Amino acid sequence: MPTSLDHIDWFRHTSPYIRSHRGRTFVIHLGSGALDSPSFPHLIHDLALLHLLGVKLVLVHATRGEIELALDALGIEGTLHRGVRVTTEEVLGVVRDVVASQRLQLESQLSTGLPDSPMHGSKLRVVSGNFVTARPLGIVDGVDFQFTGAVRRLDAVGMSGVLDNEGILLLSPLGFSLTGEVFNIGANELATAAAIALGADKLIIMDKAAGLLDKAGELMRQLTVEDARQTLLDDPVQKEHRDAACRACDQGVHRAHIISYERNGALIEELFTHDGGGTLISQDVYEQVRRAHADDIAGVLDLIRPLEDQGILVRRSRERLEREIDNFRVLERDGRIIACAALYPFRDSNTAEIACVATHEDYRGGGRGQHLLSLLEEEARSLSVQSLFVLTTQSTHWFLEQGFSETSLDQLPTERRALYNLQRNSKALIRQIG
Ligand SMILES: CC(C)(COP(=O)(O)OP(=O)(O)OC[C@H]1O[C@@H](n2cnc3c(N)ncnc32)[C@H](O)[C@@H]1OP(=O)(O)O)[C@@H](O)C(=O)NCCC(=O)NCCS
Questions:
Q1: What is the pLDDT of residues 327-365, one digit of tens each?
Q2: How many domains in the chain?
Q3: Residues 281, 300: one domain?
Q4: CB atoms inside a 10 Å sphere around CB 369
């Protein structure tokens, strides 16, 4: 059991995640069995917490397993073709009942608020409606799918309206046709289509398994879309989730996560810890180095403030960072800035200063600092800079290992010398690159 200090420490470390998730749209696919899982009450609390933290939530509940159980109980024989249910009129009646019962369960659970529960005072507004227009799947290989449908259109404006008004959008895997008929739609398809239509930041697929598992049953933690597509999976449900995740990422959803609903806290772990607990699929490489922009200021400040407090880096005000953000390059990992470095060219003297090189302490030793430095070096070369210098108090040896050598302050450009902070007593190091 962690001590209360561990809790406090963990809570402090969540601030970058809270900031990065606020105002974002997450589509959460609750896989078959989720509502009956012993962890479901905790999941409801976690969803309420995300909502409270400003995440726009769309919930899609899957019904496949539950429909199978209901059909068995009624002695109705269901037919699958190519893994897709044929929805006869009789089956549609069962589908309606299962959907209605799940919807009521979700709505009632999201309405709880007893004084001694984590839901106390949460007042969640859950909204569902006719946001999904469906078309019949039709006849495939001579098999008439009848009331099995596919998503034809989603009312993205209406759905966004719900989210903008702080509602939680609940989508059931049913759609309506222009002829007024009801169609049974796959939850994977619906969740993916909703994530794409809303330009969601995340599609989170919650299922029984911890995530995507390789042949040896090991959890695959991070995959690019390309790698995920090449991964051989035996389990048809895993394949479906993988394909849904890849499709979403192909069409602009930033990240897709596959996590377990069985594990208490899996959603929080995935969203508020460095490495999460499930599988993350993203289009880009998981870590990306890029130019910083105004939206990164808060993330850069989160990274450098502790180092400034320790006197390792020179204190920069937010205003100064706002002015100088164009000089920064950042390394982003799953929406979070984990390393940065800045380049300040001095055009008159063909030199440039490297400053504010920092890697979050959890990610040090992976070559990130070196990578950022070589990137800045390349940029400096393209600006015809002949030498790079740096002022540092505690990382002299690191820069020596990167090919810098100690120099005297008179080697620095005059305007930089004028700003030299004598109290810090930093060492100057230089490296010729031209
Ligand atoms: C210096 C810093 C940016 C390196 O980041 P990083 O991503 O870990 O960099 P790399 O992975 O490329 O380099 C890691 C290597 O440098 C070594 N190293 C890290 N900091 C060092 C330091 N202050 N002195 C000497 N060596 C250091 C590590 O031990 C590691 O070596 P190893 O692989 O032999 O164990 C990071 O330690 C940091 O943020 N330091 C605090 C901020 C700072 O001092 N910045 C410089 C002033 S602008």
A1: 999 999 877 899 999 999 998 889 999 999 999 998 888
A2: 2
A3: no
A4: 21
